[in-house]
Amino acid sequence: MLNIEEFISGVVCRATEELWGTSDNIQIQKTRKEFEGDYTVVVFPLLRASKKSPEATATELGEKIVASTPQIKSFNVIKGFLNLVVDSSFWAERFGEIVSTENFGMAEKSGRTIMIEYSSPNTNKPLHLGHIRNNLLGYSVATILKANGHNVIKVNLVNDRGIHICKSMLAWQLYGGGETPEASGMKGDHLVGKYYVEFDKHYKAEVKELMAQGMSEEEAKKRAPIMLQAQEMLRKWEAKDEAVYSLWQTMNGWVYEGFDVTYKALGVDFDKVYYESQTYLLGKSLVEEGLQKGVFFRKEDNSVWIDLEADGLDQKLLLRGDGTSVYMTQDLGTALSRFEENKLDDMIYVVGNEQNYHFQVLKLVLKKLGYEWSDNIFHLSYGMVELPEGKMKSREGTVVDADDLIADMVGTAREMSNELGKLDGCSEEEATAICEMVGLGALKYFILKVDPKKTMLFDPRESIDFNGNTGPFIQYTHARIRSILRKAEEAGIATDSFLSAPLLQEEVELIKALAEYPAVVRTAGEQFAPSVIAAYAYDLAKQFNGYYHDHSILKEENTAVRSLRLKLAQEVARVIRSAMALLGINVPERM
User: Fold this and answer.
1) Of 37, 72, 79, 175, which residue is the least packed, with the fewest Cβ within 10 Å?
2) How many CB atoms lie within 10 A of CB 470?
3) Are strands 27-30 and 39-42 parallel, antiparallel or unpaired?
């Protein structure tokens, strides 16, 4: 398919070369909606070559382009800006290309291999709203990168070891009475999370008691008996103590079964799962390598550090004095194994913005160890999801649970769909499927339409508004188009081909919007930004609804015009379906 931006750029460059002997500093952008035109040339950079005023330069260039390019119908000049109007026949040709392109919007194979890590849960609690943003963002970016022709490997690094895991284990040992997911009727991840909260409750009580005995808060936190027991449990785990290791395997098994249910409900998956328990030792070997090279240093308490003060940072702990690992230890080892095993071109970590400093240090440490591929590590940082009530805290049990939220979204979708009559005539099976699709579509779209860097406020009911910038609005537009096409087929009107007909300006605008899709997919891939796709899908749906409101399709008496409009509607539905799939969102055939 013709690359429209390259075509317009080529037209302008040839004209400036012929007029003034230069094609440097050509700036082209889409014409703003308040002006007539399709593409705008900024002529100020050309004034040195033309030796004329901005208006005269623009006029001369416009006359040259119109005279030499049949596809450019006319031009107008607004101060130093040349607005080019493309002939409708050009857009008719582009529409023919769109219709005949099977994987429209998808790029050719790039040959690049990109690994993207997302989810990365701890095995001491269930997934919550913050994890949902992480999973949806990671899965969508992976899908967008695939659409850009890259070989993408989706991975999950499970944080299955460490002091936080031992806290849940110890609390279950002390207060659980042998409780299991089967006996309690709870999902395994919820049960383990219950004991993480239980640990914190007892820990705070012990700290309070020690402080009442005259101990400082800092000292009390270090010497609370339950915390000392958790630290001892971690040491036993690293020493492969049989009883501790067996309990760890059992409780993690409960959590994994729970996670799998949530991942399936969210519609996300992974090509490979890494476990921190299997990677932290490799990190230790890298720490030893760094000590031998003099990149790291050991303190009196036997802990290992790197001094990054000369790089504008500070000293960073790499290994505790007792030999136990920290997150950085494990991330060093994991990064090395991934690049070597998979011959990666790029590695993307989808992790919240509270870890910005961590990834800055990770790249710098790997660079100092001599690994040049560290430049190809990218931290896709995202802001937290907040609620009207404020921030969430796992240890205090005040999080919005992912499973509960998914169920609530589906329930709200059913309630609002019933109110609006969207499920009239549907069987119970159809209604259930539609409500799941709409509820999850609302959740995914509401989260992904926001720039990842921004902290966002999540409002479940607002996300299911069928009239706003929401997933259900776009889903309903797709269902509406599919309904039109079904009615056409029932009436014996062919929809598999179309006849050429003069284009209305609104039809030209729709074709222009469709033609932008490949560039939108490319931009979203370059910026790792599902929000770019979301904005495009919404604008396209809104534009089609406006067109459909003003122009009849099935009742149009001119056969050629009706044929064109049906095909145009069909292509809008196809692109909406494709764009929403890049966000991990399904669209219904009927609503």
Assistant:
1) 79
2) 21
3) antiparallel
Does an H or E element contain 391, and which? none
Quote the pTM value: 0.91
Query: Backbone dihedral region of 379: left (phi > 0), alpha (psi from -120 to 50 degrees) or beta?
Result: beta
Q: Which CATH class is domain 118-386?
A: alpha beta
Query: How are beta strands 346-352 and 304-307 bridged, if at all?
Result: unpaired
Residues 188-231 have pLDDT tens digits of 999 999 999 999 999 999 999 999 999 999 999 999 999 999 99
Altogether, the residues listed in the chain come to a count of: 591
Strand 377-382 and strand 346-352: the pairing is parallel
276 close to 159: Cβ distance less than 8 angstroms: yes
Q: Assess whether pLDDT exceeds 50 at residue 401.
A: yes
| Fold classified for 4-86 | Gyrase A; domain 2 (3.30.1360)
Cα 186 vs. chain centroid, distance in angstroms? 30
End-to-end CA distance of the chain: 34
Residue 409, token pair as written in the block: 């979204």
Q: Which of 5, 4, 26, 97 is nearest to 571 (CA)?
A: 97
Q: What is the mean pLDDT of the chain?
A: 93
pLDDT at 281 over 80: no
Domain boundaries, the chain: 4-86, 118-386, 402-582
Residue 119 phi, psi (nearest 5): 80, -75
- Distance (Å, whole) CA 547 – CA 388: 37
Structure tokens at 374: 């560290």
